[in-house]
Amino acid sequence: MSGLRVIQGGRAGKGQPGLLVEGAAEVVTMAGGLRRGTEQDNPAIVTAPGDPHGDDAPVVACWEGRILAVGRRSDLLGVLESGGYPLHRFTRVDAAGGTITPGLVDPHTHLLFAGSREGELVLRQRGADYMEILAAGGGILSTVAATRAATVEALEEHGRRWLGEMLNHGTTTIEAKSGYGLDLATELRLLDVAHRLGAEGPVDVLPTWLGAHAVPAEFRSRPDGTEAYVRHCVEEQLPGVAAQGRARFADVFCERGVFSPDQSRRVLDAAARYGLQPRLHADEIVPSGGAELAAEIGALSADHLAAPSAAGIDALAGAAATEHPVVATLLPATTWFLMHDDFAPARTLIEREIPVALATDFNPGTSPTPSLLHVLTVACLELKMTPSEALAAVTINAAYALGQGEEIGSIEAGKAADLVIWRVPTHLQLPYWPAADLVRAVVKRGRMVLEHPGP
Ligand code: NIG
Ligand code: FE
């Protein structure tokens, strides 16, 4: 059993300060830090050898919003009583023979936008290409037009609706990018709405400024449009975004035909000077120097990587051997939804000891899914990740991809009490029932925030 800790600073739930989750067949702790190489396949599980309600079954104790301890029932209950955490101060929750995991973390979403783009799905079925649709002024740019015209209330309502869907699939923390404004006023509006939705809870939202997502129409008509827009990002948007103080991270769509590595570097270097940590859309469609750039600038995360070059993989492997690895955040639901054949080389990345995370990329063009469970299934089927590797990728490694590895992503004493109770007896079944409703309950900061009735 992990030692009891006196916890300060957690958000106390209504009524009782404690929450005791009992009756689990399996607790996936993900204890032990960032996963890479063969460790990515180690979920650090505590199982019930017999009856999930028996003496040897695992129990998770939370106190004032933090994990207090994970241990065997017979040891833990006595230690709580004698350690100053009387059992009558705990709300007891029955996992009913299910699995407990850390709350899922989605480290790459484009949460906020207006409108939808189902028409592009049909265009792609008929052979249209995602980048050609964008080059012709559609794709991202059609969402930009709709988003600029949307009211704050409409954006909030949309964000609340999809955060609810994410929570229904077990997600308790997300990253949310701007990038459908592409002018200062709309970018600020998106970042502010993202921040406010996070403050409203229960899902935590970490905002990212993605001003360099595409070149907007008013710059594309100029001969030097991309360069002029990069200057606008650095000189006009960034100071405003920094002064607003909502964004934590900066991101760029570094891809052939969008922003070059040099242009991306200028935006991200400038952002870093304002304290925004870099992350990158890297090599989504073709090798574009994104993985190399992410390693060079020490990005927290290099995302997509469906088409990294050999040199890019070498660069990420080099970074992985340092104190500040770049997390490879793979988005296989995007490759799947674009009907592309080439998925990210997850097996190679894991063999090269590069830590791998997974995310939904939730957005109206390339990945309209809010479900990390869906991503788990695609990761197992198409990236050939094991269920345990994939689960590490949406918990502890996703937390590190957001710089939150010490706070969330595992069930360890002192960390935020963000838990999901699943209606399956082992985490190996999480990718195994596609599109099923597997969540029994979600605990955020020690409070039950979602409970599904029934078996
Ligand atoms: O990660 N490729 C850039 N951004 C998103 C797609 C945005 C869109 O098509 O609206 C992505 O795939
Ligand atoms: Fe994206």
Principal-axes geometry comes out as globular
Q: Give the strand line-up of the largest sheet.
A: 8-9-10-11-12-13-14-15
**What is the alpha-carbon Rg in Å?**
22 Å
What class do helices, strands and sheet pairing give? alpha/beta
pLDDT < 50 stretches = 1-13
What does the average pLDDT come to? 95
- Beta percentage is 15-25%
Largest β-sheet summary: 8 strands, parallel
Distinct small molecules: N-(iminomethyl)-L-glutamic acid, fe (iii) ion
Helix content: 25-40%
> Would you report the number of β strands?
18
N- and C-termini, Cα separation: 29 Å
Continuous helix count = 16
What's a quick, concise take on this entry?
The chain is α/β, with parallel strands linked by helices and 455 residues long.
